[in-house]
Amino acid sequence: MKNQILFKKLAFLLFGMWLVSHFSVVYAGDCAIADPAKAADWKACEGKTVKVKGARATMDDVPPAYSEADPSLSGGKGFQDYMSFDDETYVIVRTATSVDCPEEMEAQGTLKYHDLKGEKEKVRVIEDSKVTCK
Fold first, then answer.
1. Which H or E run includes 84?
2. Cα–Cα distance between 32 and 48 in angstroms, integer?
3. How many domains does the chain contain in total?
4. Which among 20, 2, 24 has a CA at the least distance from the CA of 10?
């Protein structure tokens, strides 16, 4: 009998935690990017908190203009890394501390767009990112 009561309390607690986390995502302004290869999914999340997982890209993988966005080159603070979702879809990931993920990473932060000299379109930048290596 006690086990059954404990099980019900645990189930209720887990459901409550799920419910709170579900609604906190909505109220926090988080935005889901269903398909990172589609530009429209990114554009819909501009200015909002996003969380994406992808392959870590090196400076050799991304277009040369991406390195010019590095805050350390313009006297700013922080570090810059890159994520790749296919051979044409990249995002700049800016963090407060250096990140050294060997292959895959997950980044959560605010999605912004920046103009870069030499690029036809604005580039995606996830600012103030919290990064986890996968």
1. strand 79-84
2. 10
3. 2
4. 2
